[in-house]
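Format notes (please read before filing issues)

Several people have asked whether sequences and C-alpha cells are stored in separate files. They are not. Every record keeps both together, in the order shown below: the sequence lines, then the C-alpha cell lines. Line labels are part of the format and must not be stripped during preprocessing.
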Amino acid sequence: MDLTVVAYIVYLLVSVGLTVWVARTLSRNGRIFLADVLHGNEKLADAVNHLLVVGFYLVNLGFVALYLSQEESVADARGLFEALSVKLGVVLLVLGVLHLANVYVLNRIRRRGALDREPHPPVPPQGWTAPAAGA
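Then the structure lines:
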C-alpha cells in the first residue's frame, strides 16, 4: 500500500476521533454554561447545546475532508510523520479557534443577560457633582 494512502487513513482516523472527543467534551461541560446563559431554561439549553454540537461537527468534519488532499506523495516514514504532523496540527488549531469563538460568543451573551438581571436604581440620577479643585 502506498504511504500516501496510509497518511490519509491515519489522518482521517485521528482527525475524526479528535473531533468527536472535543465535541462530546464541549457538549457535556458546556451544558451547565448554557443553562446559566439561558437563565436556567434546561430544555432550551439542551436544544442549543445540540445545535452547537451539530454545527461543530459539520464545520470540523467539512474542514477535515477539504484538507485531506496532499499534492506531494509520501515516500518514506519520515515524510509520513511530517505530513501527518502538519495536517493534524492545523486540525487541532482549527478545533481550538472554533472552541474559543464559541466560548467568546456565549460569554458575551451571558454578560448581557447578567447586566439585564442587575437591579436598576429606583430613581434616575438627579444631578452632577464637579470634581474637587485640589484633586
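For reference, the curators noted about this record: Helices lie at 3-37, 42-66, 77-117. The mean pLDDT is 84.
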